[in-house]
Design goal:
- The chain is an all-alpha fold and 385 residues long.
- The radius of gyration is 20 Å and the shape is globular.
């Protein structure tokens, strides 16, 4: 395992943690800011939405710059913006700062992936990309749950100080351990037209949309299901990280065996099953007990495992179909993921506010089931090559 690639993964860990660092504290956050819980959730949605919109153009614009410089600038700005979020009193200004942070994260992601690809031999590039993506996995396993613990102990604003600290740590490590990397800039659209990548982008959008409809609002949903609040939410958020490790392992093996078509279909159906388990527990009227905890834990673990099992297959197909424009294709796929997160967050927030938590789980299951049908009709019989 290349140590410098692991250091690059710290950037995706920092930005991945920052995107949802206060996910377990939406209710106290909303109360202090004077907005609804759904509106507080949009502070996460705006981050991923601007990341989605800014990703491809920034991947092209900064493609001509030295990669280490791009990462250090992005992480430095992230430190400053998170400190600004810490001190900002109003919801509106906080929304603007979060939007800018999302754009900065979009600039860093493709730069880290391109640097990782350049630092390893060609036969190791797939593994290097998976390691960089694994930074997001560690964010769900450690960074985001730690945000819940810190926020419960010191208040939700302390999560922004934690996020700034994670960005500063990644910045220091990259400055010390990562050499200069100057890959050629990708050609705009080169190799993407006619490559059959649009269904892959759509599948990524639907996968994240189905998952994040629930995950964005996991704290209020857990409170309604099993009366879990505060730092206790972190235990269930850590299950997301465990599931993502399992999912990346399963998805990677499926892609290596050219069994990705079936595995993605099963992944979408597992997302639907996870939503059904969440809905089942919300619909139960029994007092929370061991069975309730088991059902909710299985729902969280199943959903995250399913989501991350889908991603290696899609990335493998993207690189195979557009080898000359892999960084740009991955940037567009990252935007599809961010758009899916934004869509899921917006839909979940609207449903939670207007019709209640049970409708959130129903919508997530419906999206996942539709995605399974879409995949079978568009990609189910295609070979990876």
């Amino acid at each position: 395992m290349n140590f410098r690639v692991l250091v690059l993964a710290l950037s995706t860990f920092a930005f991945g943690s920052g995107a949802f660092i206060f996910a377990g504290l939406l209710e106290p956050m909303a109360a202090e800011l004077g907005v609804s819980v759904g509106a507080a959730g949009q502070l996460q949605t705006v981050y991923v939405l601007t990341s989605a919109l800014a990703g491809p153009p920034l991947a092209f614009l900064v493609g001509r710059f030295e990669r280490k410089r791009v990462l250090t600038v992005a992480l430095s700005v992230a430190v400053l913006l998170n400190l600004a979020c810490l001190m900002t009193p109003g919801y509106g200004t906080l929304m603007i700062l979060r939007a800018i942070l999302g754009a900065v994260g979009a600039m860093a992601g493709p730069a880290a992936s391109a640097a990782a690809s350049a630092l390893v031999p060609p036969e190791r590039r797939g593994s290097a990309l998976a390691i960089v993506m694994g930074g997001m996995t560690v964010a769900f396993l450690m960074g985001i749950p730690l945000g819940s613990v810190v926020g419960a102990a010191f208040g939700w604003r302390a999560t922004f100080l934690l996020s700034a600290g994670l960005s500063a740590f990644a910045l220091a490590a990259i400055l010390v351990f990562v050499p200069r990397v100057t890959p050629p800039a990708p050609g705009l659209g080169q190799g993407l037209r006619g490559a059959g990548v649009l269904p892959l982008f759509a599948a990524t959008f639907l996968a994240f949309g189905a998952n994040m409809t629930i995950t964005t609002y996991i704290a209020p949903i857990l409170r309604l299901q099993i009366e879990v609040t505060g730092a206790s939410v972190a235990a269930f958020q850590m299950l997301v990280g465990v599931g993502s490790f399992l999912g990346l392992t399963l998805g990677g093996r499926a892609a290596d065996r050219s069994a990705g078509s079936l595995s993605v279909t099963l992944g979408f159906l597992a997302l639907a099953a996870a939503a059904a388990l969440h809905g089942l527990e919300l619909a139960r009227t029994a007092a929370p007990g061991a069975l309730a905890y088991a059902i909710v834990g299985m729902a969280v673990l199943t959903g995250s495992t399913a989501l991350f099992s889908i991603m290696p297959v899609i990335q493998t197909r993207l690189i195979s179909r557009a080898p000359a424009s892999a960084p740009l294709a991955l940037a567009f796929n990252g935007s599809s993921a961010a758009l899916g997160q934004a869509f899921g967050g917006a839909l979940g927030g609207a449903l939670l506010t207007q019709t209640g938590a049970l409708s959130v789980t129903f919508a997530a299951g419906l999206i996942a089931t539709g995605a399974a049908v879409f995949w079978r009709f568009t990609e189910g019989r295609r070979a990876i090559g």
